[in-house]
Write a structure and sequence with these properties.
The complex is a heterodimer. Chain A has 17 helices and 33 strands. Chain A is an alpha+beta fold. Chain A folds into three domains: 341 residues, Methylamine Dehydrogenase, Chain H (7 Propeller), CATH 2.130.10; 178 residues, no CATH class; 88 residues. In chain A, the strands form eight sheets. Chain A has a six-stranded mixed sheet, with no helix packed on it. In chain A, helix 15 packs across helix 16. In chain A, 37% of the residues are buried. Chain B is built from eleven helices and 20 strands. In chain B, strand 13 and strand 14 form a beta hairpin. By secondary structure, chain B is α+β, with helices and mostly antiparallel strands. Classes of the chains: A alpha+beta, B alpha+beta. Chain A: Pfam families: RMC1_C, RMC1_N.
Chain lengths: 640, 478
């Protein structure tokens, strides 16, 4: 433990559950389906305290000791029926009303076989696993009846249960094969057996752990490597219905001794008691591949679980803190991440502390891959990438950043695509799409998140390069840049006077084309006329003619604006007053004359007279025209 | 621009029009000289003003006289306008163009105007066609000659100081100018062929798919990986892929330089996996060539390394003022870093380009020689898009000189800030129509060769071409 140097990547959760420790009077049971811990005093006669899955959920009741020590005790998922096994061939069902048992209504269900265990598969259905097979029983409290619903006959040596996947792994007596069986309400499905390689190989119950990694059921088998003698964990993945479980990964422990396995956040945690360390494995990371099997080394050298100080109940304010013994022989581990110290009377969830772990993984690309799979990885990953671009920045790191951006955007794009599909699928069959809302990736880093971490590095010499790399990566995955990112790219390009790049980005439509972005460009058109051109190009692409007209009027290009207004709005809709006013403001008689004549011609066409309609309120400009071009107007008046 | 005409006889020109042309001699270079009046102030030291005179093998007295005349004209026009407003002088047989790039330094280009030998009353008469020479085109050519010198040797001003060694420095500068321009002038393009594109100094950018463009652009992150590299510019064959932050005139000079440097050593096999382009005569350890770039309004020297992988040429600029020439290890390091990446990029660009050219070839075959010509220029990027074959032998594919001159005269100077919208239609003496439009810093020209077309026909036809050809740019006034 001294080699841990204070860095721990695994910790015991603070939301632990205390219970009465195992003693002569008290027996403790744990139901990993409901995550409930049962402290049974004197066979239930002096009380049963059920806690879990959190400290505050407590059910307390008493029941009579009906002889025979309790072997197993489990609530139905709705906590309304308690199944208790006291004999090897019988299970009792105790019905509950509220939190109290109806002790007069106990059904004892007796079978002729040797019961290895039972699991609840539904509120009223229970699967019994015995030496002759698996059988589902329906319990009917109203009729006080237990009815067999489904049975699978197979001789069994031992079994393991994975409550997350509803899969029981059965070790058959014949041939020592491991057969996974899917047990659901009214259904038992036998799945293809686990291929152990050697048919004569015998696997002990204690060597097998069932877990779910990345949504796939994994059969983890501890065994020693025939060549080195070191222990390994074989990972057989149940890739899907009908597909045989396949040995996909081997975790090289490079240790010998006793091990226990948990899964935390899709990581496989292998605890080694002798060295009091826990090794972390992520099967999503790359490893050495031999014959389609990936061999993994631990992500980092093993470190111990973070020491846990248990605050004992005390009257004094500072209390007494008990340092819990880690990797104690009293520990019992349950899937996926439960640690129970029966002697201490404490149950913890194992948690990953991701921040210290990041310091242990120096390869930033591997760290990115790792964090992208962790449920709490987003903030950490943003922090890591932020640091790479900020105080840890080096020019040589750019290829690393490029790879990281690609990894992030690959996931981002798959999500964008999925959302897009859902949106487009909506009109055709509205009902089904609402029902299945797609689950987002574990770590989704969107543009807005990236912009947040780009902002602190704005206006540095290398910012343009970094942003362009990100833009390239987005483009690679067909994601278009959004407003904030576009504006940031524009600002950096302008700051570096890379007008050429800016022009080409706009012509390729790689920045968001919106009025807002175009106006942002226009606001900076004093920097260089190139920007003005690019801004108008963008406005032209999105057909925002009214803005272009305003811009041109603002620049005093009245004729240009008028020409565009005529083409985009149509002759009838061009407001005369607005253009005459702008022409008047240029103080250029030629422009004023041209604009005035244009509207006169329009009047002629629309109203068959040169005069302006009163509604257009152009009196002052008519006067200006008459005074400026006195002779000219006199002529015209005579003609008309 | 203020052309000064001396002794041009217009009436005679008209009278000779009917006579039969025996032979036409195109514009040629008569002389080119560089002088600085402040250098030879004393009597008898006039020759010191002349820093360079081409051709070299004529009498010193003639040189002094020519320079003296130029000086006189400059001073004379200076009394009417500001000093460097003197741009061109037309005489019957010559056109002189003046350019003062740096205070006191004048570059003068004297051209023999085209002449047509005609038979008039049995006598051979030379008819000088001074009007065929377009000042603006040749002024731009002259400016480019200066920029080329500056690109290689830096500004003239910096070479001369007022100290004791002034005379030595003058001689050194004269020798340098001599060395540079003698070889430069030997390789210049035929002056008669100079056209609007030469005037614009426009550089063609390679049109790429956006993903490839970003890849090519982001190759410049090399500058961050190797801090010694200040800038990099990428070319594919003759086209610019990424121009970095070089100003347009430097990019043009670089482009010209690269074309001459790489075609000289164009051996595809050498550059299959990337290699530095070196002059074959050069020793292995020789420092790389120095060039001068206008960087953030300062002209500073840079080492230029040219690296080539397949058809991609990468120009790297290293700050030469602050650091010594790079060591061979540096080349090695760059090579191992860039080689595989750049050749991979080059292959991808080549694939893209061949895909594009298949598309455009199909288009080209449909347009026949007599179809209307067009020329589009983006003033901001100096890009142009045209179907005028510049090096075409037959006049069908190109356009007559006088039309080219008209376009050159119509073209707006690039430096101007405001960009008004214009529309012009010009009919030339030989029945060509030129329709010009300008908006949003873009100039568009359509050249129609229909003699009987009415104004309405021309407008219609021009409109059709604008709509058909303007797909990439936003021309909202269609």
């Amino acid at each position: 433990m001294e080699k841990s140097n204070g860095i721990h990547y695994i910790e015991l959760s603070n939301n632990f559950i205390r219970f009465d420790a195992v003693s002569q009077l008290t027996n403790v049971f744990f139901d990993d389906s409901n995550k409930q811990i049962f402290a049974v005093r004197s066979g239930g006669a002096t009380g049963v305290v059920v806690k879990g899955p959190v400290e505050d959920t407590v059910i307390t009741f008493c029941m009579s000791d009906r002889g025979g020590a309790i072997r197993s005790i489990k609530f139905s998922p709705d906590n309304q029926i308690l199944a208790v096994q006291r004999k090897e061939n019988a299970v009792e069902f105790v019905f509950f009303q509220g939190e109290q048992p109806l002790l007069q209504d106990i059904i004892t269900h007796q079978v002729k076989t040797l019961i290895y265990g039972f699991v609840w598969v539904h509120n009223r259905e229970l699967a019994l696993i015995s030496n002759t097979g698996v059988e589902i029983f329906q319990i009917l409290p109203e009729k006080r009846q237990v009815r067999s619903v489904k049975a699978l006959s197979i001789s069994i040596k031992w079994f393991a249960w994975c409550c997350d996947a509803n899969v029981a792994l059965l070790c058959t007596t014949e041939g020592n094969t491991l057969v996974p069986v899917l047990v659901k309400q009214k259904v038992i499905t036998k799945l293809p057996k686990v291929d152990l390689g050697n048919p004569s190989r015998e696997v002990q119950e204690s060597k097998v752990t069932l877990g779910r990694v990345y949504g796939v059921l994994a059969v983890l088998i501890l065994q020693s490597n025939s060549a080195t003698g070191m222990m390994e964990v074989e990972v057989h993945l149940l890739n899907g219905p009908g597909l045989a479980p396949r040995k996909c990964h081997v975790l090289r422990l490079s240790l010998i001794g006793r091990f226990a396995i948990n899964t935390v956040d899709n990581l496989i945690v292998v605890h080694h008691q002798a060295t009091a360390t826990s090794l972390l494995f992520d099967i999503a990371l790359s490893g050495e591949v031999i014959d389609d099997v990936t061999y993994h080394a631990p992500i980092t050298p093993g470190r111990s679980i973070k020491p846990f100080g248990l605050k004992l109940p005390s009257l004094s304010p500072d209390g007494q803190i008990l340092q819990c013994e880690l990797y104690s022989t009293n520990w019992v581990l349950f899937q996926p991440n439960i640690v129970i110290d029966a002697k201490l009377g404490c149950m913890w969830y194992l948690n990953l502390s991701i921040e210290p772990l990041c310091n242990l993984i120096s390869d930033r690309i591997r760290l990115t891959e790792f964090l992208l799979q962790r449920s709490s990885g987003k903030q950490m990953l943003l922090k890591v990438v932020g640091q790479l671009m900020d105080d840890q920045y080096k020019g040589t790191l750019l290829p690393v950043l490029e790879t990281i951006f690609d990894k992030i955007n690959k996931i981002y794009s798959s999500w964008v695509q999925l959302e897009l599909q859902n949106q487009t699928a909506l009109p055709s069959n509205v009902k089904s799409t609402i029902a299945k809302s797609s689950t987002p990736p574990i770590v989704l880093i969107e543009q807005s998140d990236m912009v947040q971490i780009f902002q602190p590095i704005a206006k540095r010499t290398y910012t343009e390069t970094v942003l362009m790399l990100y833009l390239q990566s987005l483009n690679k995955y067909n994601i278009s840049a959004q407003e904030e990112l576009s504006k940031m790219v524009i600002s950096e390009l302008m700051r570096n006077r890379s007008f050429d790049t800016l022009r080409r980005l706009v012509s390729y439509s790689m920045l968001l084309e919106s009025k807002s972005v175009a106006c942002f460009l226009l606001a900076h058109s004093d920097v260089n006329s190139a920007i003005s051109q690019v801004a108008i190009d963008m406005l032209g692409k999105i057909q925002a003619h009214e803005i272009i007209i305003e811009v041109m009027l603002g620049q005093g290009k009245v004729i240009d604006a008028l020409r565009l207004a005529k083409n985009s709005m149509g002759l009838e809709k061009v407001p005369a007053r607005k253009f005459l006013e702008a022409a008047y403001k240029t103080q250029d008689d030629l422009i004023f004359h041209s604009v005035y004549r244009f509207f006169q011609m329009r009047n002629l066409r629309m109203y068959e007279t040169l005069a302006f309609p009163k509604a257009e309120q152009c009196t002052e400009f008519i006067q200006h025209y008459n005074t400026t071009f006195a002779a000219d107007s006199a002529n015209k008046l005579q003609i008309s | 621009m203020l052309p000064v005409y001396f002794g041009q006889v217009k009436a005679a020109e008209l009278a000779n029009k009917m006579a039969k042309v025996l032979q036409r001699v195109e514009t040629t270079l008569r002389s080119f000289y560089v002088f600085n009046s402040s250098l030879g102030q004393k009597e008898g030291e006039e020759h010191k003003k002349i820093l360079f005179y081409h051709p070299n093998d004529i009498e010193l007295n003639t040189k002094i006289k020519d320079v003296g005349l130029s000086e006189a004209i400059i001073t004379f026009t200076g009394t009417f306008t500001s000093e460097d407003d003197c741009k061109a002088l037309h005489t019957q047989k010559t056109t002189q163009l003046f350019y003062q790039p740096e205070p006191g330094f004048w570059l003068v280009l004297v051209l023999n105007v085209p002449k047509e030998l005609k038979l008039k009353d049995g006598v051979e008469v030379a008819d000088y066609r001074g009007g065929d020479v377009c000042d603006r085109i040749y002024h731009a050519v002259l400016r480019q000659w200066y920029h080329m010198y500056r690109f290689h040797h830096g500004p003239l001003q910096a070479k001369l100081t007022q100290g004791k060694a002034a005379e030595e420095e003058r001689q050194k500068l004269a020798a340098e100018l001599h060395q540079f321009y003698e070889s430069y002038l030997a390789n210049i393009k035929d002056l008669a062929q100079c056209d609007i594109v030469d005037m614009l100094h426009s550089v063609q950018y390679l049109a790429l798919d956006k993903a490839l463009f970003l890849r090519a652009h982001n190759f410049s992150m090399l500058c961050d990986t190797f801090p010694a590299v200040k800038e990099c510019v990428m070319l594919y064959n003759e086209q610019v892929v990424c121009g970095g932050k070089l100003i347009a005139s430097d990019l043009y000079s670089l482009h010209v330089h690269i074309l001459s440097a790489t075609t000289a050593a164009a051996n595809a096999e050498t550059y299959r996996s990337g290699a530095f382009v070196r002059d074959e005569n050069e020793e292995q350890a020789a420092p790389p060539s120095r060039v001068f770039l206008d960087w953030e309004a300062q002209i500073k020297p840079y080492y230029l390394l040219i690296y080539r992988a397949l058809n991609v040429t990468l120009c790297l600029f290293l700050d030469a003022a602050r650091q010594v020439a790079p060591a061979p290890e540096f080349y090695e390091e760059l090579h191992t870093y860039m080689g595989p990446q750049l050749s991979c990029l080059a292959r991808d660009i080549a694939a893209e380009v061949s895909k594009l050219s298949v598309g455009s070839a199909a288009q080209e075959s449909t347009s026949n020689d007599s179809s209307p010509k067009y020329l589009f220029i983006n003033e901001q990027s100096l890009q142009h898009h045209t179907n005028i074959y510049r090096s075409a032998k037959t006049p069908q594919k190109s356009i007559p000189r006088n039309v080219m001159s008209i376009i050159a005269d119509l073209a707006n100077p690039i430096e101007q800030g405001a960009a008004a919208t214009e529309e012009l239609q010009v009919k030339t003496t030989n029945d060509f129509w030129v329709v010009k439009r300008r908006c949003n810093w873009r100039q568009y020209y359509v050249i129609l060769g229909k003699s009987k077309a009415t104004l309405l026909d021309v407008t219609q036809e021009a409109k059709r071409i604008f709509e058909q050809e303007l797909t990439d740019d936003v021309f909202f006034d269609k």
